[in-house]
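Dear colleague,

Thank you for sharing your sequence with our group. We've completed the structure prediction you requested, and as agreed, I am returning the results in plain text so they can be pasted directly into your records. Please verify that the sequence below matches your submission; if there's any discrepancy, let me know and we will rerun it promptly.
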Amino acid sequence: MSYDKPKFHHPLLKKNKVGYIKTDYEGVISTLCAGCGHDSISGAIVQACYEISLEPHKLAKLSGIGCSSKTPTYFLSNSHGFNSVHGRMPSITTGANMANRDLIYLGVSGDGDTASIGMGQFVHAIRRNLNMVYIVMNNGCYGLTKGQDSATADFGSISKAGSDNPYQAIDLVGLALELNATFVGRSFSGDKSQLVPMIKAAMAHPGFAFLDVISPCVTFNNNAGSTKSYSHVREHIESTSIFDFVPHEEEITIDYPEGESAELALFDGSKIHLSKLAPNWNPTDRFSAVNRLHDAKARGQILTGLLYINTDDQDLHGKLNTVDKPLNQLTQEELCPGSEALEEVNASFR
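Please find the predicted structure tokens below.
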């Protein structure tokens, strides 16, 4: 039995604007359990990158340790990649981003990798508004070490071994909102109609874009009593809105009343159905997003969709006032201003 993907494809397969077919964005065959939600998220990443016509060499994918951190092997084989140690993905991404701001940085993590050992790194990446997409594949357990509860496992949820979780869960979405992350969203691995446009929007966001994706573990956390199982999420999911993403092109305008829907033709001839948010929901209001999240939690619901976005804050390069040119491309002449300028800098500290 061969596990190699075929190299050939039909010559008439549709290509995107940069000449790639969808399989050009794939990786090797997954070794995760059949039915794992992580594979669905990998497929959504592949679909999103294909649809936005991303050139693979312009993206860097980074990860830590865990089932989720294996997934960059399964998508975008022609992109840059770095697999870091447990919980340290944000610092590796920070260094890479500071050296070359021209790449899109996609960090993939898990609930153990982020909410436990990597928590300190996660919160400071938010504080700095590091320009990256940060995806947590959240299954509420440690899949690589046989299913122990992670820090995101809900209080009272029952593990496959039959024990109740006695600890309160860490809500990564709530934490991101409290720390004023500039893009916060939540989705479900089995809902590609919502997840794909959210990934596309996150990649276009000029700052820290956080996506918490509920991703059931079919082996260790898909049992009755688990709040991260497929059945539980389907029964309790609630979306903030119908969500889609339109890339930067010539402006398309439309006007229709709040709370109603409209069909809109895009540049490629495809159409999207827009559903305008109700008057009581504003994704640019962080406090409203926090309150709505708490309200959903009190009612036992899993709130999905774009919860909050802020496009006015500066990313890390803006905060540090770095040059527009990537630091790894600066020449000796640009880095050394000359003896007179250096003497002036030294004199300022005397």
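Summary note from our side: Residues 37-51 form the longest helix (15 residues).

Kind regards,
the structure core
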